[in-house]
TrEMBL record, chain A:
This is Menaquinol:cytochrome c reductase iron-sulfur subunit. InterPro entries: Rieske_2Fe-2S (IPR017941), Rieske_2Fe-2S_sf (IPR036922), Rieske_Fe-S_prot (IPR014349), Rieske_Fe-S_prot_C (IPR005805), TAT_signal (IPR006311). Its cofactor is [2Fe-2S] cluster. GO terms for molecular function: 2 iron, 2 sulfur cluster binding; metal ion binding; monooxygenase activity; oxidoreductase activity, acting on paired donors, with incorporation or reduction of molecular oxygen. The chain crosses the membrane at residues 12-32. It comes from Lysinibacillus macroides. It comes from the Bacteria. Component of the menaquinol:cytochrome c reductase complex. The Rieske protein is a high potential 2Fe-2S protein.
TrEMBL record, chain B:
It comes from the Bacteria. This is DUF2487 domain-containing protein. It comes from Lysinibacillus macroides. Pfam families: DUF2487. InterPro entries: DUF2487.
Length: 167, 149
């Protein structure tokens, strides 16, 4: 028997304090977590989708970049693959939407041999300049949309579309 | 464009621009040994037509597939469909199918026959690549017809 024996009274009060502490923590932790939740929510990156294109590989020549994301339509989830035309203009990286503003076909870069430095829509011969500006006299009525972009770990991230800011 | 209310509204308003109909002809064969192949064909045709639709949305309307059982098909189905579609304002009508039966009909209609590629076991990227390759075969057929007017 050691000299400083724990008395029955002490033992009970330690145990009760311990158990009570756990119970209080069990109740308080979720409350605290709920209270500070808005602070912990992840910002940015949410709407951005990572592509397989390295930022350093982007050149002045527009290239087609595929990216896919999960789209939720009510209870139906599907993987949607989308495309962007990406190039560098000076130091700025530009990502243009390939959707023709006329009736929604996919435009192609340099597909028209008469106009190699323009985006071309095969459906009704709509044409756009490199910055997405629609060329007067062809069916499209407004410039190609532009994607918001970000860079993460050296890779290009593509976000939501916005109206063209370049032309 | 697809055959749904909003796309048909767009078609009605833009008949000059949306002048092509794509009609998938899908065979449904329920014989035990052919059922799987039939399913693969239907999957392939539907994947390919929606891929075509994505590329050429503004010029063509993809019809819901005309499906039939082998015993229920008759020789001049495409011809009759074509007449109806021409009357509805489509200048060009293309049929797309994996069924050899329709290739014997001669050149009276634009029949695009493609061998079914089983897509079920493929990775998404491979599938996309295959569909792109197939699309590249179809594009010249569409563009020669489009260039004729």
């Amino acid at each position: 028997m050691s000299k400083n024996r724990v008395s029955r009274r002490q033992f009970l009060s330690y145990t009760l304090t311990g158990v009570g502490g756990f119970m209080a923590a069990g109740m308080l932790m979720p409350m605290v977590r709920f209270a500070i939740d808005p602070v912990l929510q992840s910002h940015g990156g949410g709407d951005f989708v990572q592509t397989e294109l390295k930022v350093t590989d982007i050149t002045e020549e527009p290239v087609k970049v595929d990216f896919s994301f999960e789209q939720v339509d009510a209870w139906y989830k599907s993987d949607v693959t989308s495309v962007a035309w990406v190039y560098k203009s000076g130091d700025q990286i530009i990502a243009l939407s390939p959707v023709c503003t006329h009736l929604g076909c996919m435009v192609d870069w340099g597909a028209d041999s008469a106009h190699p430095d323009q985006f071309f829509c095969p459906c009704h011969a709509g044409r756009y300049e490199k910055n997405g500006k629609n060329i007067a006299g062809t069916p499209p009525t407004r410039p190609l949309d532009e994607y918001d972009i970000q860079e993460k770990d050296g890779y290009l991230m593509i976000g939501p579309t916005k109206a063209n800011t370049l032309s | 464009m697809y055959f749904n209310a909003s796309d048909v509204t767009a078609f009605m308003a833009q008949k000059d621009f949306i002048d092509t109909a794509i009609v998938p002809l899908v065979s449904i064969d329920l014989a035990t040994e052919k059922m799987k192949q039939s399913g693969a064909e239907a999957d392939f045709i539907m994947s390919l037509t929606s891929f075509i639709e994505k590329q050429f949305k503004g010029r063509l309307l993809v019809m819901p597939p005309f499906s039939y059982m082998p015993s229920l098909k008759y020789d001049d189905l495409p011809q009759q469909l074509e007449v109806q579609l021409h009357n509805a304002g489509f200048k060009h009508v293309f049929f797309i199918t994996c069924d050899h039966f329709w290739t014997s009909g001669g050149d009276s209609v634009n029949m695009i026959w493609l061998p079914a590629i089983p897509l079920e076991s493929m990775d998404v990227n491979v599938k996309k690549k295959i569909l792109e390759d197939q699309l590249r075969q179809v594009i010249p057929l569409l563009s020669t017809k489009w260039a004729q007017i």
